[in-house]
Sequence to fold (332 residues):
Amino acid sequence: PSMSADDTSLRIIVFGNSGLHQYSLTESILQRAIFKFVDYHTALTTKTLGQYLTRNVTLVNTPNFNSPDISHNTLKKELRKAVCFSCPGPHAVIFMLDLLDVPSTTYDIFKPVVQHFGEKILNHTMIVLYHEKEGDCQSLVDSVRRNQDFRELLEMCGQRYLVFGGKANRKDGSAARELLDQIDQMVSEHGIYSNQEFEDADKRIKKEEKFIEKERKKEIRKMLEALEKKHSGEDLAREMKCYEEKIQFQNRERAEVQVADRLGFTLRLVDYAVAIGKGTFVGALLGTAMGIVGTTVGAAVGAVLGGVFGGAAREAWQYFSNAFTYFHRDST
Fold:
């Protein structure tokens, strides 16, 4: 997709090997303290909205990919959350490295992103070398550029990289301006990144928004009636517009989180079913007997039976219960 001339908003996903500097980068761009009480070692995917020079900017921070505490399943779930939080697709992907601690296996850290999204994601990726030092860092940059693994990744990303000094940026904002300028240039060349996963997630989110809107219909009507009693004329129009925008924003946020959780659940269910051949077979039989919706529910039942065979009855039953709720909603 291409960027509309009237839409100057930006959606950016941040990956990296340093949780602390990832969040520092987000705060530097949005020019405010956001993650004061965040545990950088355990933080999962977060979405932060703000403005930079009148532009609406959404930054999606993912977990520290270099952390030994992140399991393969957790990583996949967090990547899907990043998809939901940046639909219909990111304008840019930032791979952030600590300038003072660039590992020799740079590409290995970013490899799960490429494996998940495909090699085309590299056309939308920029490497950011973040630091909090004062003064000239050219010798450090030269040292990083001698890293063979870094050079190869840089080549894959079209030689796009930026040295981002956090302290200097807090004084004059120059690094953030340069970063957004380079992102705009990248978007003008390659457009906005998207694929089938983003398109499917966006459709699910929009559908979920409608469910949430219906659930809140009574609440919204009461609030609008209260505004009509309190305001009139232009004041009423302004207050109603603000409230409607607020509700729309809240509904979108809730829909994104719910769909992200649902996709994460579906992923666990699929992984669970793949591990148990007997359950898959039984699920297929049940699906055939129960029809289209039953196919999905049948797969869940198959996972249950397979889980029983594998000694995980309680967890499998929970999966089945969740599956029935989720797929019943998706089928309506």
